[in-house]
Amino acid sequence: MPGPKANVDAADDPDDGDDSGDGVRIDMISGARMEGLTGMEKIRLILDGVRDGNIVILEEGLSPDEESKLIEVTMTEISPDDFTGIEIETYPKAEAGDQSFLDKLMGRESTQKLTVIGPANRIETLHKDENLISTLVSRK
Amino acid sequence: MGLLTNLRDSISRVTDGLFAADEPKRIGIYGPPNAGKTTLANRIARDWTGDAVGPESHIPHETRRARRKENVEIERNGRKVTIDIVDTPGVTTKVDYKEFLDHDMEKDDAVRRSREATEGVAEAMHWLREDVDGVIYVLDSTTDPFTQVNTMLIGIIESQDLPALILANKTDLEGSDVQQIANAFPQHETIPLSALEGDNMDEVYTKIAEYFG
Asked: What would you give as a GO molecular function for this chain, any one (chain B) (predicted)?
């Protein structure tokens, strides 16, 4: 039975990630693409890509609750000699002072933060600060 | 309708407060692996109950199940605070059994340990979303606090509106840099301590009473 994965990648997935040869496939997923998905569908989309060895870049990142569930689901999928987990990097959260008064008043919290996620055994963070994330991606 | 809803909410808050005042608060001790969470949990438990919570080790993921020590009564300035301490496994986004092989472990033991560790981290995340009333976030003050796990966990804690106390542990070690932790999370108060040596525990208990009482 097709699950959330089929729902989000069947339409325009150029391939299933298996024929990337020596290259590294990078999926850059727009905020618009993620907008209509449930939290679990987002996590499935990310983990399916990462488990295929791809690097997933989210234009707008995940909410704290979704990040929590991503860690939880990742842990349940780790298996020896197969999948050792994920490396994930985002810019540090913007200070609350950056939010507009109206946003604070309405309780709106922006979660928009570019997020890079990859297989833990293939991606290594070299440097990270407020403005730059530098990562080393190794081939399969 | 809005007035009635507000009135009902106000009554609910008052009655909840009356009945919940004596209920122990569940305080989760969170942080990355090897920050000294179990050492701290044991220090608190021993100081106030005489018992320990669990074994401590320099090998990462020694704690692979959330462990609870119930009804720890802390007295501060004539005020008594009752908490349940929940010592949680160190949170991470990756676990590779090969890392345990460096600690003189056989492959079978390393694989079992990594499997238990992943289950423990998943359990800890679940506790954080569902089952704790406050968080003590423990960091090793000799290491860089600007990690993704720390950033994400503090964000998750803040999004749940949980009271959170950040502890900069291992101040007894050379290279300890408490200010770096304070700079990393300026929106929170950072308390320095050495859970191992028992340094500055007085201030820690005062803050626990203040934050979670």
From this structure: GTP binding
CB pairs under 8 A between A and B: 83
Point out the residue among B93, B146, B155 whose CB comes nearest to the CB of A74.
B93
- Mean per-residue pLDDT for A99-123? 71
Q: Say whether the ipTM exceeds 0.85.
A: no
Range of the domain at B136: 26-212
pLDDT at residue A85 in the model = 96
Are the beta carbons of A96 and B187 separated by less than 8 Å? yes
Q: What pTM did the predictor assign? A: 0.82
Q: What total of structural domains would you count in chain B?
A: 1
B6 belongs to a structural domain: no
* pLDDT at B19 exceeding the cut of 50: no
pLDDT higher than 60, residue B11: no
Q: To the nearest whole angstrom, how far is the Cα of B91 from the nearest Cα of chain A?
A: 9
CATH number of B58's domain: 3.40.50.300
Beta carbons of B159 and A85 less than 8 Å apart: no
DSSP string for chain B: -HHHHHHHHHHHHHHHHHHHTTSPEEEEEE-STTSSHHHHHHHHHHHHTS---S---SSTT---S-EEEEEEEEEETTEEEEEEEEE-PPP-SB--THHHHTTT--HHHHHHHHHHHHHHHHHHHHHHHHT-SEEEEEEETTS----HHHHHHHHHHHHTT--EEEEEE-TTSTT--HHHHHHH-TTS-EEE-BTTTTBTHHHHHHHHHHHH-
Partner-chain residue, chosen from B118, B155, B158, that has the shortest CB–CB distance to A75: B118
